[in-house]
Each structure stands twice: as C-alpha cells, then as structure tokens.
Amino acid sequence: MSSPDGTEPPGRPAEPAAVAATGDQAGPKLDLGPVGHLGDRLFSSLAHGSGALVIAIVSFVGIFLLALAIPALADDQSSFLFSRIWEPGGDQPRFGIAAMFYTTVISSIIAMIIAVPIAVGVALFVTYYAPKRLATPVAHAVDLLAAVPSIIYGLWGILFFAPILRPVINGLAAALGWLPLFEKPPGDNVGVVFTASVVLAIMILPVVTAISREIFTQTPVAHREGALALGATKWEMIRMAVLPYGRSGVVSASMLGLGRALGETVAVLIILSVPNANDPWNSSIFAGGETFASKIANNAAEFDSPEKTGAYIAAGLVLFVVTFLVNSAARLIVARSGPGGKRTRRNRSAGGAAAKEGAVA
Amino acid sequence: MTTLAANKPAYDGQALDLTGKSGARAFKNTLATVLITLAFVLAMIPLIWILWTVVSKGYHLLFDAGWWSESQRGITVRREGGGAYHAIMGTLIMGLITAVIAVPIAILGAIYLVEYGKGTRLARAVSFMIDILTGVPSIVAALFIYAVWITIFGFNRVGFAVSLSLVLLMLPVVLRSTEEMLKLVPDELREASYALGVPKWKTILKVVVPTAFGGIITGVMLGLARVMGETAPLLILVGYSKNINLNPFDGFMGALPTMINQDRTELALQPAADRVWAAALTLILLVLALNLLARFVARFSAVKSK
Questions:
Q1: Residue of chain A nearest B222, judged by CA positions
Q2: Distance between B17 CA and the closest CA of chain A, angstroms
Q3: CATH of the domain at B148
Q4: What is the pTM assigned to this prediction?
Q5: Tell me, which fold does domain A86-360 have in CATH?
Q6: Is B53 an 8 Å CB contact of chain A?
Q7: CA B236 to CA B233: how far, in whole Å?
C-alpha cells in the first residue's frame, strides 16, 4: 500500500476560493452563478468536528477512567503501585497492582522476544525469498493469523498447544531452574505465564510481520543492487542493505506488537491459571498469574459497588497509560528516524506502517 | 565493503580467482535461507493447526438446520440441540450498530486529514490520537464505556454499550485505510472538478470519495472483522443470554464469542464441546469471510494512480 508523500504537488489549488479569486481579476466580472459557501462551510465543520471528536474520545478515555479511579485510590489502604494484595471493597480496601504489572510485562516481553525474530524472518521471506508469484498469497496467509478471534487462540492454546509445550517447560526448568524466573513450582500446571507468552507471540506475529514487510520493501533498489554488484551474497545484501535500512521500522513494529500483547484479554484469561489466594506469590514464568486485562475481565461480575469498580478502573487506567507510552514510543521512533534515517520519508513510512497495522487488525 | 577492498592488495600479476564465494560465506548464505524459510513454516503451523482444530471439531453441527434458526433457550450443557441463531444475530446487530456509528466519523475524519487539515497542528494531533486509539486495548475501551454508561449515567448493561466500546476499536482501522485511499486519489481529478467551478464539498463527495470507494469498503469490512471477534467488551458490558433478544437497548444479548465463553469450562461434556467448537467455527467463518471479501474488493477496485 504505497502512498504519495505528504508534500503537495505545485499547482494544486489550496482552496476553491483561489479559483474564484482569479476569475474575479479577469477584467469584466464573470457570472459563475450563486457561489454558495453554505455547503462548504457545513461540510468543512463536519470534517473538522470529526477530527476534533477523535481527540476528544482519546482524552475522555483518560479523563473518565481517572475520575472514577481517584476516589477508590484515595480509600486504598495499601500502596497502589507496590502492593501485591488485591482486596478491593469492604471497609478497608487494600489493593495494589505490583503482581499484575509484573505478569503483564513479563508475559508481553517474552512474547516479543519470541515473535520478533520469527516475524523478521517471515517478512524477509515474503519480500526477498518467496517466489514472486507466491509472495502475495503468503503475505495474506500470515495476515489471516490476525483474523482469528482471540478467544479461539485461548481455547486452542490451553487445550491443544499447552500440552505440546509441557516438555519445553520441563526442559527449560531443568536447565535454568536455579534462576527464580525459571523455577518450576510443584504440580503439572500448563496454564502458566510461559504458555500465555508463546500464544501471545503467535497473536502479535502478523502485526510485526506486516510492518517489517512494509519497511523492507522500501529499501532503495540502489542499496540492494549496490551490495549485490560488490559481490555480496543474498544474505550479505540483506544484512548490509535491508536490515540497517529497516532497523527503526522493526523496532517500532516490535513495540506495537508489545502494545498488543500488553492489552490482550481473553486469550490470556483462558490460558493463565489464577493462583490460589493463599499461595505465596511466585515470580516464575512457569507459574500461573493474572495480567491487568485478564484480572479485569475475570472479575467483571464483581463490579457491584463503586469502590470495587473504581479499583478495577484504576488498574485499567494503568494499562491504558502503559500501552499509551509503548505506542507513543513506537510512533516516535518511526517519526524520528524513519527507514534509513531519512527524515524526508517519515510521513510516508509512519502513515504506511499505521495503515498496515490497521489492515491486519 | 570498504574493508574487503582495503584487504585486497594491489594486483600482483597473478590471476585472481573470481569464481565462487568462500565456503564460509556460501554456508552462511544457505543457513540464512534455511532459517528464513523455516521462520515462515513456523508461522504457518499455528494457522493451519487452529483452522484444522476448529473445522474438524465444529463442522458437523453447522450442517444442522437448527443451528442457524434456533437459540439455546432451555438447553443445558448436557443436552444436545438448539442453535446459534441468538448469538449470530447478536454479533451481527452489535457489529452493525458499531459500523453505523463509527464509519461516518471515520470517513469524515479521514476527509479532514487529507482534504482540509494537511500539515496543520490539529491534523498532526488527530493523527497522533488515531495512532493511540489503534493501540487502546479492548478491555480499556470496555472499561471506559462502563465508566460512562453504567457508573455515571446509571444505564443497564445492554448490547448498545458494547457497540459504543467497539466504535473505539473500529474507528482507527476504518479511518486509516480511508485516509490511505483518499491520498491515492490523483490531484488531477480534484483540479478538474475545481476548474469546472464545483465547490470543494461537492468535489469531495462526488469525485474524491467515489474514486476511493472500493478502498473505503475494504477498510469498513476489515474494521467489522476486527470488532466482531472481540470478547472483552461483551464480558463487561452485556450479559450472555441463551434466548433470542434482538433489542440492543434492553436486556442481555447472546453473541458468538460469549457463546463460546459460556460453555468453555464444560468441554468434558460432548454436547457442550460440540457447541463451543461449532460456535468457534461460525465466528471464524464470519470473520474470515469479511477479511477475504475485503481483500477481494480491494483487488478489484484499487485506485489507479496515474
């Protein structure tokens, strides 16, 4: 999906008024009929209004969540940011997001670590390795992964995929179990953070692939052919021309994928087993847990009092802020450097990447 | 490459061997080809596996006429029978309402970005906010609507609230794809229209938008496909009903994702498991059909730029 860059070609009238103005100057006044500006004004304000509405919606999301979270936070008897206890409601509500924050971030980062190399490989396969005739169907097949609803990923993940992962989990735990991160708790639980991460990796694969693909195809032909003409093998050409050119695009694609993983709800909700309230907290990726999104969705039935709801809304607000920061960082990376570090192309690449992301959403 | 050139001494009179690459470089090249192809194969495994699982476990109920015309009213997890009519209708109704609200805003917003606001500070702000909206998790959109619709206004949990939260998810998808399409419309068309004295708003409505129409439809269908598969807003903003309820402003409503969610803990029971997979297959078919149709429309109605 290529697009013309942001610069306006010369000669395009900025406003129809300009046309009318030149008409006026041409000696005797031309009668062009009623110059009804009402329609223009109406339509223009509608368009401006829609633009402003978009800004308003995003601001409202932040404002309303904050407004409802503040009273609950004021009543909170424990540290909201650093406590791992979650007991909202009652006379002495005590709740903190530390445990949820940890599970959300660790599961998403592992998902990103797994997904990005594969996504870059798939993007390279589609752009430079697949036979020309196959490239488009192959790209669409990867995009179809994004079309599978997340609840189906969840069901498939826990019922069919998790058992396959069991030996992987046992192997990793045996080799690296001396680290708290890889320590396997007793029992044969497959609904663990690691399983959720692998399924999340599959879910963010299409987004990361689509944006990387878009950037890789933009590598200037001169760079590629220059490398090949100097005797580079195909891989050397990719390493020296394509990858450096697309680096910032891949980084930003990975962060957009991270943003997706952070907010994924139902798949994680189905896969992750919720630890017993009495069990001690476990930092291992081979233990269960709850992310922001899964905790909120899991307890939707508990939204009975404003205090309780406020606590969950406060958690949602943190998730909103985290995804906001991650996504903004991703956009900034694209806008700052653009592919190949050329500022002149930034509009094109940013718009193209966003459209790609939209297309596979 | 400069190091390669530097290492090579000046021509020393002996024949240079220019045939072939060194073994290590050739090996690395082959290794990269194998790994990259492997990455692709690896990415295809889950797609095929998921589709196979859902199709093989869910297909037989879909041939049952009752599946498309009956609800789950009075049917327990241990009993066979009933259909998904209530859930299919719920998904379609909520999706349709979402589209009716989101599409005009999205198209007008895209028109603003391309035709009116180019280069202005407001347009940059709008563009940034759309990027942010693209990344808003569905659960956050659902919580926001919960905060407004239920906590502040005190309304009930109904299908319409779900649609409102889905608008937040659909808007950026449609807006971005419409924007890309409008950008592709050649300026010559606009200029020709202006030269004929047609006002700007008519030029946009009669020339620019019709030229980009196919692309806009593609965006709408991709947006619909995205929101119809969402589960999180359904969990929070409307209860699941086994009965047929076609009124989005009153009462709980069935939907395919929540129909799957309803029985997913009872998969040990055959009738429940059959229904879960059949509902999953119905949902995938719906979403895939929208996706494929969108790409089909895109291929045959692409704006010919120049």
A1: A359
A2: 13
A3: 1.10.3720.10
A4: 0.86
A5: MetI-like fold (1.10.3720)
A6: yes
A7: 5
